[in-house]
Amino acid sequence: MLIEPRPAIDPEIAALVAAQQRELREADGGLDGQATLTHDDIRYLVVVVDGRAVACGGIQALDGDTGELKRMYVRPAYRGRGIARQLLAALEELAFQQDHSVVCLETGTYLPAAIGLYTSCGYEPVPVYGEYVDNPYSVCFAKRLPVAA
């Protein structure tokens, strides 16, 4: 398994994010109206297994101290192998390298596996923020990153 950075315009990023959005629409009954798939200002990481991109996630700066986890996704056939946990750790390291002291994220109440992953990795519930405020299915979490010794 390899975790590597990729630009937002990478076709494998686009394919993974499109798959994530399809799955979200199915999970929430079509209630999630997000139209924008990728953003140029998100720094993406991709997990590659046997030459195939199987997972992705990104960090987008919210402000000087805070990075937001975006588009975290693992293809269904690769779930249950610890890939998401390893990708999350790599994304936290990326956020730290970008001088963020906090990582926050939004997910849906209809994604209990995602909520379980984030809480087991030290993320704590925070008030719903930004564009998610009016979405009744949104839940938000944040984690303070360790400081360098």
Which descriptors apply to this entry?
seven-stranded mixed beta sheet, alpha+beta, globular, 3 helices, 149 residues, 33% strand, Aminopeptidase
Structure report:
The chain has 149 residues and is an alpha+beta fold. It has one domain: Gcn5-related N-acetyltransferase (GNAT) (Aminopeptidase, 3-Layer(aba) Sandwich), CATH 3.40.630.30. It has 3 helices and 7 strands. The protein has a 7-stranded mixed sheet with strand order 1-2-3-4-5-7-6, with helices on both faces. Strand 4, helix 2 and strand 5 form a beta-alpha-beta unit. The longest helix is centred in the N-terminal third of the chain and has 17 residues. The chain is globular. About 3% of the residues have low confidence.
Describe the structure concisely.
By secondary structure, the protein is α+β, with helices and mostly antiparallel strands.
